[in-house]
Design a protein that fits this description.
By secondary structure, the chain is α/β, with parallel strands linked by helices. The protein has a single domain, classed as Thiolase/Chalcone synthase (Peroxisomal Thiolase, Chain A, domain 1, 3-Layer(aba) Sandwich). Helix content is about 35%, strand content about 25%. It contains 13 helices and 16 strands. Strands 5-4-6-7-1-8-13-12-11 form a nine-stranded mixed sheet, sandwiched between helices. Strands 3-2-14 form a three-stranded mixed sheet. It has a two-stranded antiparallel sheet with strand order 9-10. A hairpin with a 3-residue loop joins strand 12 and strand 13 (about 325-330). The longest helix is centred in the middle third of the chain and has 23 residues, at about 205-225. Acetoacetyl-coenzyme A binds next to helix 2, helix 6 and helix 7. The site of acetoacetyl-coenzyme A has 27 residues, from helix 2, helix 6 and helix 7. Belongs to the thiolase-like superfamily. HMG-CoA synthase family.
Length: about 400
Amino acid sequence: MQVGLEAIGVAVPDTYVELADLAMARGVAPGKYVDGLGVTRMGVPLVDEDTVTLAARAARMALESARCSPDDIGLLVVGTETAVDHSKPVASYVQGLLGLSTRCRIFETKHACYGGTAALQLALDWVRSGSAKGRKALIVCSDIARYGVGTPGEPTQGAGAVAMLVSDHPALVVLEAGKTGVYSKDVMDFWRPLYSKDALVDGHYSVQCYLDALEGAYRSYQEAAGDAGGEGAYSDRFAALVYHVPYGKMSRKAHRHLRTLDGDAAPDASFDRLVGHSLVMPSQVGNIYTGSMYLALASLLSSAPEDLTGKRVGLFSYGSGSCAEFFSGVVQDGAQARVKALGLEARLARRRALSIPEYEDVMRAREHLDERPAADAAGSGFRYQGTRDHKRIYAT
Ligand code: CAA
């Protein structure tokens, strides 16, 4: 049985900030954010958008793209590190908004940016084991990345969700059973205490932790795949490499490290060929934590000019704290056309730019979103309206 991604959906906020504008407002050379970090724009959600609404919008796109009935979903897991409640999972709100069956197992996973990958691996095994009994899994990665205004992390914010339909009809990418390598280690590189809406990070240390985890997971993958020691650089067996993208430059550092591990004396030379297309959309959206690597995969399938049919793609997911996984998939016939048909790049182009004062107002307003009284006017289209009797209210 072949198992993998049948469809994908992506949601990003309708508004964004130009990183060049942010740099000028912070007295920093724009080149530092745009070239030094490799980010052009970052998505900033307005006050009617949260982790739930982004997740629901992405999930709806995935279901519609596969013409999948809500009743066909037997497992819904939302991976997030920016949940909206200490107890009730984001997944339950999504179940309600999408009208999924009551005969569906539903929960939320957390391990920083790795939480979505943990959910995806679980879903793959659920389908492979036969427990799915013909039903499909819906895995959603949804987050709003938030660091303090004026901190070094500020230009690496972003927001968005990626939903994946996982089944034994993997029309997009077959994920290879057994070909996966894991690395985990208790480190304090990035975290968010229960009392804080902003993430805390030991920035340069977090880069080193990411690279250490990449090395460990890649070596572990090579052992699991069982075909190490062949001709040429090991990573030339992949037509593309998709790394977790907290910011574009991190993917460049990751690729340089991986190719150096391969013994490549010119480790940057293959970057544009193997990695470039995966960064087109992340550079316009910023860090979306759990969904970042999957947005990069969507970007690759949407923008790579060459035919990737039958080609292998390497995927590296990193969650601070930490847990990382290197795994691989094979692109299926017609996958690129299906992802292009979602019109993701056109959607990004239709967003509205926020001025820096508007962005700072939104950041302040978002601090109190969890207690905001629900607006009387009914909106539509999966929008957060506020709370009533301590309950979150959503417009459908
Ligand atoms: N023109 C071009 N480039 C410039 C420049 C200019 N005018 N000025 C500086 N640069 C370059 C620097 O040379 C540097 O490049 P290299 O990394 O290649 O040396 C780059 O811009 C960044 O400069 P700094 O290192 O001085 O930047 P900083 O100290 O202000 O912060 C950061 C960088 C540590 C990444 C910070 O943004 C941060 O803490 N971000 C959040 C943490 C993060 O994303 N970590 C990633 C790994 S952890 C992870 O992946 C999990 C997750 O999702 C959070």
